[in-house]
User: Fold this.
Amino acid sequence: MNILVSGGLGYIGSHTCVALLEAGHSVIIVDNLSNSKKETAEKIINITNKQVIFYEVDLTDDKAVSMIFDNHKIDGVIHFAALKAVGESIKKPIEYYYNNLVSTMVLVKYCLKYNVNKFVFSSSATVYGENRVPFNELMELFPTTNPYGETKVMSERILKDVAQANPMFSVSILRYFNPVGAHESGLIGESPNGIPNNLMPYITQVAKGKLKKLKVFGDNYPTVDGTGVRDFIHVVDLAEGHVAALNNLKKGVHIYNLGTGKGTSVLELINAFEEANGIKIPYEVVDRRPGDIAECYADVTKAYQELGWRASRDIFRMCKDAWNFEKNNSLDY
Ligand code: NAD
Ligand code: UFG
Assistant:
């Protein structure tokens, strides 16, 4: 199939392009490079030995998106493009609502116009808010604590309404847990701008000596060792989950958790990283980070039963591949 991948040069999008190409699909990447680099397209080509088409286009640009649908016979869309920094979204709500919601609406509008009925959407475990773990897809959603999370809840709602009005439309909403790690080649991975907000890129930058010490946000949660617990998933497993979702699309809207189903605490992740890579990670415990929940992990039964997909790479592999990417990439990658 010809798959339009929005945000295809970003962290999860680039790994998914590799998985799609390896599964025999063709990809048309649309990305405005607001959080990615053009060279990533070359890296995808290097890894797979296959060509990709790339448009440097902003998805809120209605005319430019229309032109892409005019130029290509598109069979399906995987929509990753979004702004994703939780803290920044609180400071810049309009930017987040505008970018994330308008992008989704423009893409869906042209899918309907050009009879593209296959749509896969990047949602997030953040929509579960303070539900009880493990989170399952039937749970009622709690209001999230930030505009970023709300854009995911609202986009899910938009897609449900569109599918209701257009019975041929098939949508898979994928709720990701905590993607970490990188492609085994070390060519593509996560390279956040500035000081990382997320745990794994912070750890790898401490390992590299770019940052001095990790701050552990709280050790008095009601968890196994008092630190936050998350469902870390290898980004390549996540990418393969998209191929499975695309291959198993059904009419209407279907929601799947993509995680491992296993919780790992912050201290457990630090220990796993140290063991996997033989590097000490200095850390200090500081206050809780506002907005964080104690535990977040998935019930992954539905994805296995309906998509035949389950994550296979363990926490050591995640730590090894994350470090392999970090150490192979210069500061300005
Ligand atoms: P990323 O920032 O690496 O990738 C997003 C890509 O979209 C970037 O390349 C960016 O340049 C592009 N983009 C943003 N707005 C655009 C626009 N208007 N037009 C064109 N391109 C645009 O992020 P990621 O980690 O790969 O996340 C991908 C998706 O998964 C996002 O929707 C994100 O909200 C969601 N998600 C991510 C995580 C995570 O922890 N990484 C967790 C849950 C959900
Ligand atoms: N943490 C630290 N120190 C840090 C960074 C994080 O102790 O420097 C802790 C957090 O308190 C939390 C855990 O590590 O307990 C994971 O934090 P991340 O920031 O890596 O990830 P979050 O679970 O907070 O959020 C991520 C994405 C969200 C997405 C969510 C889905 O940033 O966009 O996963 O589960 F919605």
Remarks:
- The chain has a mean pLDDT of 96.
- The longest strand covers residues 118-124.
